[in-house]
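User: Show me sequence and structure for the first protein, then do the same for the second.

Assistant: Starting with the first protein.
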Amino acid sequence: MIEVKELRRRFGPVVAVDGISFNVEKGEVLGLLGPNGAGKTTAMRILACFLKPDSGTASVCGHDILTDPTAVKRSLGYLAENVPAYSEMTVGGFLNFVCDAREIRGRARKQALDRVVPACSIESVYHQTIDTLSKGYKRRVGLAQALIHDPKVLILDEPTDGLDPNQKHDVRKLINKMAKDKCIIISTHILEEVEAVCTRTIIIAKGRVLVDSTPKDLKEKHQCSLNSVFRKITTTKTVKSAKSA
């Protein structure tokens, strides 16, 4: 459902994404890992059509990000690192605004709201303005807007950032519930989250893919915890390819 081919993107002298390629299929939850500045967020923004690559391309549900970005955006739900919400809107007003943008109307809108509001546990703040919410609740509202149109593909940048342990558990449970019917990419620094929800892991550093494997296989190969695997791979001086790592 997602096919990435040799994506590259630089910002001035900084190479953020350096020729990455990978595929993600329906039923997979891919954990995109890497140290700060590795290129994770840039890659996700390219896939969500918020940035254009300097070269390479990708497709989402068969739609090319360069030639058909509107179809790509219809096919996916995107939770950005910093959710672009309007602080003066109520939660309900914001979600209805997203429904307007997604052309979700009438009975379909009611069904969508009835589905995502309890799923994201935001009933208690539905009539509050967004500027009064905690970071955790803002994150859950961001997740709700990504899910409102029931997309086939989800791209979630730090989905549990700012959530308390109980909220993290609920979001992970929700991701696991959705996983069989969707194609999901998650960027996170919480390695226990990778083990809890991800069926596959890609580790990148300096814009390049170092490893493409499963959390279980990585731990077995390196005979240590996933946290230790991550440190071992991302702190080596020589950037290895996915095949040699």
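Switching to the second protein now.
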Amino acid sequence: MIASSAILTVEGVSKRYGSLQVTDNLSFAIDEGEAVGIIGPNGAGKTTLFNLIGGGVRPGTGRIVFRGQDITALAPPDRCRLGIGRSYQIPHPFTKMTVYENVLVGATFGAKLAAKEAERVSLDVVERTGLMGKVNLKSAALTLLDRKRLELARALATRPRLLLLDEIAGGLTEREVRALIDTINAVRAEGVAIIWIEHLMHALLAVVDRIIAINFGAMIADGRPAEVMADPRVRQIYMGVGAA
């Protein structure tokens, strides 16, 4: 049964490519303002799940509901305008544009804001993500940390109610990870629901209320972080620890 407070519901969603089952009858709900981590080994279907939620991939079976609306057949731009924002594991900024121009694209075309409001939102997001000192720098010149920050800033500029983060902490130093955690927690404090795919467990545990573990596209655990990480199936499949 789906709770009435859910901002997102994924109902019996499956996706197959030929003989490869990449998601297998996945069902779960995300509440308003909730932060949920998605874990699983490489090839478990985590990014495919994000592609299904974001609209880049259509499910073979099942449906996806966002804020009470069935969005299963909607294109990615329409989902973005409804309030689903996303960062990608490998940042792909518009390299010939400045940091500000990249973010402005998100506010203008993702959130469909009028010019003055798009400019205001873009500057606010640039400041919140720690990029104000590089606002006029071409994105091609950014460090990995700043490209990750820009990826987050572009997603935030679309004014999401649900934010999908795909391994945004990967490749960062510990100090950089802590700064990123602070930024994500600040976003969450504003009531934005978050689903975060991440291999850096200490980063994930600093943000999320709940963890969903998947393997070969199927859910194997869903619950509080301590409970999921103690699950023998998760320990064996994800952590490589045999059940004692």
